[in-house]
């Protein structure tokens, strides 16, 4: 079901519909990140991930090639060191700012609840083996261009599914206003859209995207090994803060 849903997003008809509706991202102004605070559970970003160096090097190359081929300044590229896979969106911007105003020690309570979710996950009787995800193709989101990922096998998907379930069913997190807002569409964001030109050649952009997807079909699969999840606070979409006390979970 997951693979079929994500694969449908790489069909030419889907791209045509998606490209009609792209918008400038409010997370950037004058191509610089704006304040957008919150928390997320993610894999270690590229700068902290020694397991997936070749995978992220490939994404870095793809990002550079895309920028060369699409309309100038259409995409605001993310710094490659921030590349990551989001495992579970938690809370951000106004919801987070309202949370810290209305709930004393909000951050500490959130961290404690996530730690409990991670401990619950570790007790689930899952098969041994790595969670591995491979590149399917480029996906067009309303405000971003991303690389979509699909699981290499059922276990790979089940591990992430079970982790998300322990997070979103945590009553302490629900009490803090945290709930599942999106279905899982595993991806790594390459960049966010800037101003959309009135004369944007969407057909040309679609052709560029399809040409990248054709390359992946012909190449050896690019695999992301999902070995660890971490709770991280972010100040904007390029900075995911880390310290030794961040709750972590082996996947």
UniProtKB/TrEMBL annotation:
It holds the Pfam family 2H-phosphodiest. Coiled coil: none annotated. Signal peptide: none annotated. InterPro entries: 2H-PEstase_DUF1868, Cyclic_Pdiesterase. Residues 28-95 form the DUF1868 domain. This is DUF1868 domain-containing protein.
């Amino acid at each position: 079901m997951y693979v079929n849903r994500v694969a449908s997003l790489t069909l030419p008809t889907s791209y045509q519909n998606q490209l009609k509706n792209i918008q400038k991202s409010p997370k950037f102004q004058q191509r610089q990140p704006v304040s957008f605070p919150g928390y997320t559970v993610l894999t270690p970003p590229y700068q902290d991930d020694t397991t997936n160096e070749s995978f992220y090097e490939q994404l870095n190359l793809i990002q550079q090639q895309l920028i060369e081929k699409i309309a100038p300044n259409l995409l605001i590229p993310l710094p490659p060191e921030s590349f990551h896979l989001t495992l579970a969106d938690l809370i951000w911007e106004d919801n987070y700012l309202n949370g810290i105003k209305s709930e004393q020690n909000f951050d500490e309570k959130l961290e404690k609840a996530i730690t409990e979710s991670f401990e619950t996950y570790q007790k689930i009787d899952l098969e041994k083996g790595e969670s591995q995800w491979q590149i399917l193709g480029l996906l067009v989101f309303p405000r971003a261009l991303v690389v979509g990922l699909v699981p290499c096998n059922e276990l790979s998907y089940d591990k992430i599914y079970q982790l998300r379930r322990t997070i979103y069913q945590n009553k302490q997190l629900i009490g803090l206003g945290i709930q599942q807002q999106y279905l899982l569409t595993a991806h790594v964001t390459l960049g966010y859209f800037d101003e959309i030109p009135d004369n944007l050649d969407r057909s040309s952009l679609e052709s560029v995207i399809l040409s990248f997807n054709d390359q992946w079909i012909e190449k050896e699969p690019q695999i992301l090994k999902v070995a660890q999840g971490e709770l991280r606070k972010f100040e904007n979409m390029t900075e995911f803060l880390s310290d030794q006390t961040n709750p972590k979970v082996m996947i």
